[in-house]
């Protein structure tokens, strides 16, 4: 077809030059139709080829995904056997098999990430990562590749702890390709040092090169300036269209400095993207229901001043603790402690929403702190996240003894920690609410304290409330009517009565006593039989001025206005 079109075009030109001008439009029309036919057929063929390649690629990736289940079924029993007592010869073989299965699993994960890139190329899944840990993991995964050329790969960071916000699935292939290019074009048995640094807006990894022309061929200059005319120029991946595209999506840049002989890969610390999937934040609303939940579960020492949950952070490493506090402070109110004993005292007094703790602390260990919190009636409901090292020999026993809700291995991603915090706090609130609904009914949390009092006055079914109400009414004229007197009448200790009453009503007994006095005063005033001056003594309040103030605070009107209203 291609030769037919070319031949027809040449024929048309020759005929045009030798024939009359009337044939010119016909000849050009014929040539144009043939050319258009070729373009359409070529376009259709390309579309079919692209569709076939996409289907083939999808089948390939789905096949690898199906491999993960048998790999897991192999990995789990092998690791279990390795952990048990077995001969050293067998352990050596098992270790080799487990390492290679882990390597295969990593490759499968990358393929799944590649599939996500192909399916959702423009959607960004931005998560927070500790930069040093993230880069060290990348370097560690490429050490085998470097070992093939007997190259020693190292990373040096100019920071202790630093947070960056990235889409790991999209940025990882770029970093790996960047480092692999350096490894592949470095002489055998050399040492490669990657420098990682952080400024206000950008983080970067930089490598020195000594005029390696082969390495330079991996990149193309994106500007029109000659290399000699500009000290530092922007480049892009010359031999990888995928990495070039991913670099652009992640707002990354490749900078080559010809005077210093350095190649730099740079990304923004906290970029702003469209189509970003955001994680929903935990907020505890200020309403009757939430306040009652807090009150019933011993958060009575202080009312919430913020919708942000309170999180306790316990770690003896001051730098790491400060880093985590900074990471979490935007979403949570964070209180940091160095010692487990200090944290325990604060937790018992304030009842936070969650506790995060390291296993290794000064004095009381994190596993002991978690165990004490979980075995105490007052604090067992508080979620606990415990974290520790992979290499800790007593890790399993500590995990079991701690009774912690979640155990995380260090190093961990900050975003993983945030997700665990969010899930545990939400679940804890839902469990508390479900428990109260189950015990007291679905409408219990919506009932106002005044409504509870009215129900009790009208004859509520709860025997304790009725008994307390009757006792208060019998002795309402006594000014010294106290919680101790009521508890003694019920043959309970003051603490037991107080806690039981708080569980039933969500309020202190003094609130109920005050409400009964005010309701009785209102009843006496409405009867019209008694002047305002005599009412205080009848309800146990001798000071008339004090009575008027408390009556107005309770009903919103004065005693005289209450009579007039009648």
Automatic annotation (TrEMBL):
GO molecular function: DNA-binding transcription factor activity; phosphorelay sensor kinase activity; sequence-specific DNA binding
Keyword vocabulary terms for this entry: Membrane, Phosphoprotein, Transcription, Transcription regulation, Transmembrane, Transmembrane helix
PROSITE patterns xref list: HTH_ARAC_FAMILY_2 (PS01124), RESPONSE_REGULATORY (PS50110)
Domain Response regulatory: 310-425
Record keyword Hydrolase present: no
Annotated transmembrane regions: 23-40
Domain HTH araC/xylS-type stretches: 466-565
InterPro entries (alphabetical): CheY-like_superfamily (IPR011006), HATPase_C_sf (IPR036890), Homeodomain-like_sf (IPR009057), HTH_AraC (IPR018060), Sig_transdc_resp-reg_receiver (IPR001789)
Signal peptide (UniProt feature, chain positions): none
Pfam families: HTH_18, Response_reg
PANTHER family tied to this protein: HYBRID SIGNAL TRANSDUCTION HISTIDINE KINASE C, TWO-COMPONENT HISTIDINE KINASE
Protein name as annotated: Response regulator
Lineage, uppermost ranks: Bacteria, Pseudomonadati, Bacteroidota, Bacteroidia, Bacteroidales
């Amino acid at each position: 077809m291609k030769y037919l079109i070319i031949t027809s075009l040449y024929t048309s030109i020759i005929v045009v030059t030798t024939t009359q001008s009337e044939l010119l439009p016909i000849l050009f029309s014929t040539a144009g139709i043939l050319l258009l036919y070729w373009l359409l057929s070529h376009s259709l063929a390309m579309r079919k080829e692209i569709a076939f390649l996409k289907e083939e690629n999808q089948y390939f990736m789905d096949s690898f995904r199906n491999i993960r289940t048998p790999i897991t079924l192999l990995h789990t029993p092998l690791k279990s056997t390795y952990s048990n007592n077995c001969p050293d010869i067998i352990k050596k073989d098992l270790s080799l098999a487990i390492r290679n299965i882990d390597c295969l699993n990593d490759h499968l994960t990358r393929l799944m990430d590649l599939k996500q890139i192909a399916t959702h190329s423009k959607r960004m899944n931005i998560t927070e990562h500790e930069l040093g840990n993230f880069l060290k993991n990348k370097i560690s995964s490429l050490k085998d590749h470097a070992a093939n050329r007997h190259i020693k790969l190292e990373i040096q960071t100019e920071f202790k702890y630093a947070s960056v916000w990235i889409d790991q699935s999209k940025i990882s292939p770029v970093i790996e390709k960047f480092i692999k290019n350096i490894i592949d074009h470095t002489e055998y048995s050399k040492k490669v040092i990657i420098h990682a640094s952080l400024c206000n807006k950008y983080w970067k990894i930089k490598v020195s090169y000594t005029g390696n022309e082969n390495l330079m061929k991996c990149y193309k200059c994106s500007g029109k300036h000659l290399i000699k005319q500009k000290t530092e120029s922007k480049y892009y991946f010359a031999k990888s269209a995928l990495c070039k595209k991913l670099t652009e999506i992640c707002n990354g840049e490749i900078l080559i400095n010809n005077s210093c002989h350095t190649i730099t890969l740079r990304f923004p610390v906290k970029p702003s993207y469209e189509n970003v999937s955001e994680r929903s934040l935990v907020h505890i609303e200020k309403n009757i229901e939430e306040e009652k939940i807090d009150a019933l579960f011993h958060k009575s020492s202080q009312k919430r001043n913020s919708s942000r949950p309170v999180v306790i952070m316990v770690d003896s490493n001051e730098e790491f603790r400060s880093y985590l506090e900074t990471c979490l402070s935007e979403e949570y109110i964070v209180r940091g402690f160095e010692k487990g004993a200090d944290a325990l005292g604060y937790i018992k007094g304030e009842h936070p929403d969650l506790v995060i703790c390291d296993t290794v602390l000064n004095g009381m260990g994190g596993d002991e702190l978690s165990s004490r919190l979980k075995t105490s009636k007052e604090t067992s409901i508080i979620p606990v996240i415990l974290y520790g090292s992979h290499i800790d020999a007593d890790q399993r026993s500590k995990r079991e003894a701690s009774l912690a809700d979640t155990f995380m291995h260090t190093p961990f991603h900050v975003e993983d920690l945030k997700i665990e915090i969010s899930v545990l706090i939400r679940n804890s609130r839902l469990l508390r609410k479900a428990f109260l609904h189950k015990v007291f009914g679905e409408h219990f949390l919506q009932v106002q304290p005044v409504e509870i009092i009215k129900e009790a006055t009208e004859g509520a079914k709860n025997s304790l409330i009725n008994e307390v109400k009757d006792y208060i009414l019998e002795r309402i004229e006594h000014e010294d009517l106290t919680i101790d007197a009521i508890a003694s009448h019920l043959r309970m200790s003051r603490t037991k009565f107080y806690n039981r009453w708080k569980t039933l009503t969500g309020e202190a007994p003094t609130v109920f006593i005050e409400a009964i006095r005010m309701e009785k005063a209102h009843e006496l005033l409405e009867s019209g039989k008694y002047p305002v001056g005599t009412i205080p003594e009848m309800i146990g309040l001798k000071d008339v001025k004090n009575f008027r103030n408390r009556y107005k605070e309770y009903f919103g009107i004065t005693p005289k206005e209450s009579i007039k209203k009648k």
